[in-house]
Amino acid sequence: MIPYLLTLVIFIPLAAALLMAFVPAGKTGVFKYVALLTGILQLIVSAAMYGLFDGHGAGITDEQGYQFVNHIPWIRLDLGSLGQLEIDYFVGIDGLSLPLLFLTALVMVIAVGASWNVVKSAKGYFILLMILNMAVMGVFGALDFFLFYIFYELMLLPLYFLIGIWGGPRREYAAIKFFLYTLFGSVFMLLVIVGLYFSVTNPETGAHTFNMLHMMNPDNYVPGAIFSIGANHELVGISARLLGFIVLFVAFAIKVPIVPLHTWLPDAHVEAPTPISIILAGILLKVGGYGILRICAGIFPDAARESAWWLGLIGVVSILYGALVALAQRDLKRMIAYSSVSHMGFVLLGIASLTAEGISGALFQMISHGFLSAALFFLVGVVYDRVHDRDIYHFRGLANVMPRYTVFVAIAFFASLGLPGFSAFIGEAFVIIGAFNAESVNGMIPRWMALAGSLGILLSAAYFLWTLQRMFFGQTRLKGGDSWAAALTDASARETTLLVPMLVLALALGVYPALAFDKINASVVALVELIGGK
Amino acid sequence: MLSTVLTYPVLAALTAVALPLLAFLLSAALGRRARSGSIAVASISLSLVAAAYVFGQVWNQESIRVQWEWFTVGSHRFLVGLTLDNLSAMMLLLVCVIAWPVHVYSVAYMKGDSGIHRYWAYLSLFCFAMLGLVIADNLLLMYIFWELVGFASYLLIGFWFTKESAVQANKKAFLVNRIGDLGFLIGIALVYSHLGTLDTEALTATPETFPATWHTVAGLAFFLGAMAKSAQFPLHVWLPDAMEGPTAVSSLIHAATMVAAGVFLLARIHPLFDGNTLMVIAVTGTVTALVAACFALTQYDIKKILAFSTISQLGFMMVGIGIGLFPVALFHLATHAFFKCLLFLCAGAVIHQMHHVAESQQHEIDPQDIRNMGGLRRHMPVTFATMLIASLALAGFPFTSGYLSKDALIVHTFEWAALQSGFAKVIPYLLLAVSALTSFYILRLLAKVFFGSFRVGLKDTSMLHEAPLSMRIPMVFLAACSLFPLFSMHPLNDGHVWLMQGLTTTVSSLPPLRLLHLAVPVLTTLATCVSAMMAWRWYVSSRYPLKTDSLPYRWSYNQGYLNPFYEWVIVRPLLRLSHFLFWMDLRIVDGIVNGLASLGRSLAAAASWMDMRIVDGLVRLSGKVAWWLGNLFRRLQTGRVQHYFTTVFLIILVILIYHIVVLL
Amino acid sequence: MIPLTHFLIVSACLFAIGLYAVLSRRNAIMVLVGIELMINASILNLVAFGRYDKTLYGGQVFALFAIVLAAAAVAVALAIILNVYKFYKSVNPEDINHLKD
User: Fold this and answer.
1) What is the tens place of the pLDDT at every residue in B389-440?
2) CATH number for the domain that contains residue C64
3) Which residues share a beta bridge with A200?
């Protein structure tokens, strides 16, 4: 049973979706509860996996180091002169993907909880949600590049519909923008996948393979192939490996998102319904970071070393730009969307440092941001559900009207801006420590980048505190007057039940970071060794 | 090598820190039911007992270190632990000793406030954070408590959150403190990078491990942190605004403990500072002391006067650090804690009474405005007496504790300056000048509040009465601590101060200048007496010679126009930049994306046009051609036989001619 | 003897006249006349060439056939013309154009 836990976690939602497909569309209650049950089941299984995971297993390049591995030959096709096509169902977990897997399960439960009041077409909604769930779990678990790509593309389709049908006023624009933008990136990824396929052979069978672990090992490359290390092929004037790295990086960077490839995010987040914003911010952005770590840095470590300076610069720009633009927002959801851009900039800065502290910090920041942004979007949804308005300038003194909600908002805001005692601080602190360290350890990024990035901490305090002061403190003055005051009931039991675990987890991770660091450290150290940092 | 042995002092220290945390959690859980504050008071009382025990066990004994595993990143193990040496034991006790009277005082002061349950919770949270800060053994842990202290301060400044000025003030306080936190974090990163450890015991830097520029930068970064937290110029702007919080809060946090955290940090990591950093610290401290004292001269909000006084005294402490003698700075910190806390508590008592007055009046009067007060010594004798003692301590009058600490500071600064060159030589003289200013502004306050006659016209002055017992007891206690016996047997000579003697173990001493030990106190006492006379003349006898609209007066009153300066030079440009970037994001960056989309759509339209008109056009053209040809040949079918004959004949003719020509 | 070409020229002229009559007369009977002329021209040709076949008298025989055929053709044609006249009320070939497109 235990070896199949990962496959179980990935495919439970698919089973749920199939089950839901046979239920007639009218019974909304069935869909909600099946979805919730699925989510809780996934949460339990992934928590079990988290507990059972041995923190000493490093993974990265070594299949033995991965845990919960399922490696089943899937497609074996003899293509004549092109050789044998080998695609395996190869899934496994190491320190990089384990926390993200758990995060996904948790955020999915929260999202289902936030979807409790879906009215329009609940059947379609929950089926799409389950497919999305499966796809994201698959992305984190997949270790065969073809399988990874399938899951990666599979994520886009349900999201397109979920945003486009259940979203806000400009939902069609947002949905198609998101879909095409992300697809643009991943289409070129396919080229690189094929290039890698032809460059790498499986040491056991001698056939070309999509196996990511084999791609990380320089010995497996066919001499003279396009992405092989010694051959130094050039395409359009730059090294083929660097080009491959850049293409893959762009694909994932769109998802992170980095500035200037981020403009899909505000529209998608704002127009998407609350649960979908939660999933987008909580999980999808992490797919980008994960991809950069696992694939870009894992398969092209030499190119990663070459590009570290640029990655650092992009990270710093994202941090500062995202924070400054967030400061200028009127729409609460848009402000949180831009704050996500800023926080993910820290992730990129941490990765760019190529130090153990930096990458650990980046991973920790991803985990922490997952919980906290889910909490933040959920909190926005609370107000929006009641009065259908999110404009910061339309609310004043909400603390008098909704005291318990204000407490949650204050905790979530302070946690997000990096107050120590919460997880975001640990992530950001280690990113900065790693970035500072980089100059003395591996010379990848200069110190001014770390200094500039740390300004982001100040700016995030600025916009969060401004919003807190503006919307919650002071005398109560609402645009909708008394009708709004009546509608703005305090946080309900359901909302409280959903919020508390996220904030508690943020606190737990902030106070005892070993909960996460113990599991990820071995993998991070192995990854840093692979890249050749220190 | 980790020591995890839980000896009694360690347990006591942990208890002292944990109790306020438990009190916070309990108060938060109980919500509105925890109105009486008994949980908070009980917890701080027990913490005080524990801290006293720790002090007794640790002072001048061997220091104790306990550490536990926290987490591992890369190959570095981060530990969480506590260190109990003279410095931390003293601070632990000091914080508890100051917090306890404030708690007792708050019972009466905050009585009837609708949010009092939050007050107790936040106060406990603050105590937890502050106590944790002083015993933390590594920089990361210190940083965590450092920011938590700032967070508690945020909550307490904005306690009356429906008041617009309060919520602006707490936002400002947190943001300015964040600037300092950035510095602290950068310092941590640099120390980690170069020394490989964050342990406060292991901060010895050598040129091999710590290249000179980065060494100075790290020192300055930590100083930036201390600057913000301890309100040094120019990051002091949050402290006057922080007076929006309840006065008891101001007394605890913004006078005695939180703002002292910066000084404490610098004392803790003093081995890390090189000469350049220390000079910067000393200069900044001097400038702060001078500028803040100037600002205090013209304020008429009683709490603002005290706030600037705090800033000024913190400047003194920084000078103490800057000259390399952190025991002197810490001694001043300790004495200042007592008398400044007392000053605020007394001010609170006065404000409390003025509130009653304000309620009885027709038009609005500001209960904190000293121009509305006067002659209160007759109505509030105990308050007057304690405030007088505190003021004298602040001014450095003999027989008070403040005299000892200020004397020590100034004398040692002279000794230090003797070894320096250039600008540094001026510093001690500036400190003397500040001393004089200090006497003046505090005696001005006393004169306006307690002497003369009450300036608000009252039908019945019996509403002005002494503060209740639960407020008086803490005040008297603190007054007693502001006199010399607590700190030294000898009232006039700072050589016997046990506190400094306990802390002076690791710091080098400067060549003493014996004469100064006489000259300086005489000068300061003289200045105090002159100030008293001037204050009496100007404020009690109302013979005020200066013009209130002169430039120096206005500069002082408007706090050097620093706030508008920051507003116009930093805040507004930042917001404008924000809005510009947003516009750019929407129109340019997204514009490019949308532009690409439009480009795609136009390409699609062009392709569609081409498909419809050209490709399909060719197809339809061939059809048209066929039709046209057909139409052409239709004309041959005339239905007339003779035409058909003609055609046949012509064709045969052509064939014949062809054959004849070809065959020939 | 009369040279062959004289016969051929006469017959050619006769044929041409007959062709002209067929192509340009506005009366169907005149068209028939023209056809007759063309047939007679061909008969003349046959007779002229008959000189070269003294054993089987092919030319003479074929000429007799042709005379008979001409007569038959005229008979049928006249019958057709009578019927056409009954329908179209005219013997002008230009008027009989109902098969035009």
Assistant:
1) 999 888 888 888 888 888 888 888 888 888 877 878 888 888 888 988 898 8
2) 1.10.287.3510
3) A221
Q: Which residues contact residue B25 at a Cβ distance below 8 angstroms, ignoring those fewer than 6 apart?
A: none
- Give ipTM to 2 decimals: 0.90
Q: How far is B603 from chain C (nearest CA, A)?
A: 48
Nearest CA in chain B to C24: B642
Q: What six digits make up the tokens of B65?
A: 């270190």
The answer, yes or no, to whether residue B535 has pLDDT greater than 80, is: no
User: Does C98 contact B646 at a Cβ distance shorter than 8 Å?
Assistant: no
The answer, yes or no, to whether residue B463 has pLDDT greater than 80, is no
Q: Phi, psi (5° rounding) for residue B483?
A: -95, 165
For B585-602, the pLDDT digits (tens) are 888 888 888 888 889 889
Residue C25 counted as domain residue? yes
* Among candidate residues A112, A251, A275, A102, the one with its CA nearest the CA of residue A189: A251
For residues B540 and B126, what is the distance between their CA atoms, to the nearest angstrom?
A: 40
Question: Which pLDDT score is estimated for A361?
Answer: 93
The mean pLDDT of B329-357, rounded to a whole number, is: 89
Judge: B642–C94 Cβ closer than 8 Å, yes or no. Answer: yes
- Kindly determine whether residue B649 and residue C19, on different chains, have CB atoms separated by under 8 Å: yes
- The pLDDT-based confidence of C78 (bands split at 50, 70, 90) is very high
Comparing CB atoms, the residue among C31, C96, C101 nearest residue B634 is: C101
In chain A, residues with a C-beta closer than 8 Å to the C-beta of B162 are 397, 399-400, 473-476
Residue C17 within any structural domain of the chain = yes
pLDDT of amino acid B9: 82
Distance from CA of A407 to the nearest CA of B (A): 11
Range of the domain at C39: 4-95
Q: Does C100 reside within a domain?
A: no
What is the rounded average pLDDT for all residues in chain B? 85
B65 contacts B81 by C-beta, under 8 angstroms: yes
B652: tokens are: 């045969």
Using one digit for the tens of pLDDT, what is the confidence trace for B232-247? 988 989 999 899 889 9
Give the minimum alpha-carbon distance from B329 to chain A in angstroms, rounded to a whole number: 28
CB burial of B635-650 (b: ≥16 within 10 Å; e: otherwise) equals eeebebbbbebeeeee
Q: Is B163 exposed, middle or buried (0-12, 13-18, 19+ CB in 10 A)?
A: middle
Number of domains forming the structure of chain C: 1
DSSP state of A269: H
Whole-structure pTM value: 0.86
Sign, CA torsion B426/B431/B436/B438: positive
Interchain pair C97, B640: CB under 8 A: yes
Token couple for A521: 């450290």
Which pLDDT band, with edges at 50, 70 and 90, does B513 fall under?
low
User: With contact defined as beta carbons under 8 Å apart, do A59 and A29 qualify?
Assistant: no
Phi, psi of B245 (to 5 degrees): -75, 170
Name the phi and psi angles at A119, rounded to 5: -105, -45
Q: Quick one: three-class SS letters along chain C?
A: CCCHHHHHHHHHHHHHHHHHHHHHCCCHHHHHHHHHHHHHHHHHHHHHHHCCCCCCCHHHHHHHHHHHHHHHHHHHHHHHHHHHHHHHCCCCHHHCCCCCC
The average pLDDT across A140-162 equals 92
The per-residue pLDDT for B483 is 81
Tell me the average pLDDT across A98-110: 93
Q: Determine phi and psi for B78, rounding to 5 degrees.
A: -95, 135
Contact B640 C100 (CB under 8 A): yes
Q: Identify whether C73 is part of a domain.
A: yes
pLDDT at A534 over 50: no
User: What residue ranges in B177-257 does DSSP mark as E strands?
Assistant: none
Residue C50 distance to chain B (closest CA, Å) = 25
Q: Which of A254-258, B132-136, B298-302 has the lowest mean pLDDT?
A: B298-302
